Amino acid sequence: MNWGIIGTGNMGKVLIHALIEGGVTEPRQLFIHNRTLSKAFDVKQDYPDINVCPTPEKTVKFSDIIFICVKPLDVFPLIKRIQPELNQEHCVISITSPISVQQLEEYLPCQTARIIPSITNRGLFGVTLLSFGEQIDSNLKEYLIQSCKLFSSPIIIDDEITRVSSDIISCGPAFFSYLIQRMIQAACEETDIEYDNAVELAEKMIVGFGKLIEKGYYSFENLEKKVTVKGGVTGAGIEVLEREVGDMFHKLFRATHNKYYDDQKKIMEQLST
Is 216 assigned to a binding site? Predict the structure, then answer.
C-alpha cells in the first residue's frame, strides 16, 4: 500500500514521521508534495528513500491512500485539480475539521475519510480522530484504524463533536504549552528562580503528570485531591485558580467554534461559485 501526503507543513510532517516511525509504511512507499517544493525536499533529508513528487497529480498517481494536509480553503481547489487522477480504489483523507466526509464524498469519485491528528502523534502518542465516508470498503476502514493504532489511540467520532474534540486533542497541546509558559514566566518574575531551572522543573512535572494519568494511578479529580492538603500551600493556589479562571475556557471554546463556523461558511461560499 502506497501513501501520499499533499502538504508538508506542520501536521503533514507530523504524519510523515508518525507513519514511518510507527511502522505503518516504509519511506519508499511514501509519496509527498508541497506547493513550495523545497519544503518537501527538506523532509527527504530525514528520509532519503521518500519520494518527492513535482505535482499533486503525480502524488495521486503513485498513491493508494492520499492525505490532504492543506488549509481548509485550499482543500476543494486541490480536490478539483486532482479529481481526474482519482478512481474508486483510491482513498482521500482530509485532516481538517470544517470539511465533513459527506462533503468529500459528494465531490470525490473515491473512498473518503477524515483523520485529525495531534502533534503528540510525533512521539507515537496521543489521539487521532476518525470519521469515515459511507462508501469506504470495510477492509480499508479496518486497515486505517489499525494503522493509526501504531502511532496513536484512534477514536471514531460523530461529526457534531468534531470541533470540540479537535480542540482537546489537537489544539490542547498548544493551549497548555501557553499556560505552562505563563506559569514559568510568573515564577521567574515573582521569585529568584532561574528561567532554565524553572523550564526543567516544568518539563519533568508534565512528563510525570502524564505518566500518572497514563498508568491509571489517578483521575484528574483524584490527583488534585491527593496533592491538595486542606489549609496547605496547594490549596491556597487552587483558591486563586478558582477565582481567576472563571469562564476562560468557555470563552476559548466559543472562539474556536466561531472560527470553525466561519471557515465552514467560507467553504460553502467557495463551493457555490
Answer: no
- Please list, in sequence order, all residues whose beta carbon lies within 8 angstroms of the beta carbon of residue 204, skipping any fewer than 6 positions away: none
The pLDDT tens digits for 85-96 are 999 999 999 999
Q: 58 and 171: one domain? A: no
Q: Per residue in 151-178, pLDDT tens? A: 999 999 999 999 999 999 999 999 999 9
Task: Please give the mean pLDDT across all residues of the chain.
Answer: 96
Any residues with CB less than 8 A from the CB of 244 and at least 6 apart, and which?
none
The contacts of residue 75 (CB under 8 Å, 6+ apart) are 68, 94, 96, 99, 267
Last residue of a domain, one of 100, 126, 157: 157
6 belongs to an annotated ligand binding site:
yes
Instruction: Judge whether 271 lies within some domain.
Output: no
The verdict on whether residue 1 carries a ligand-binding annotation is: no
Domain that holds residue 170: 165-252
Residues 32, 148, single domain; the answer is: yes
What's residue 252's pLDDT? 97
Residue 262 lies in a domain: no
Is 59 marked as a binding-site residue? Answer: no
Residue 11 annotated in ligand binding: yes
Residue 267 falls inside a structural domain: no
- 120 marked as part of a ligand binding site: no
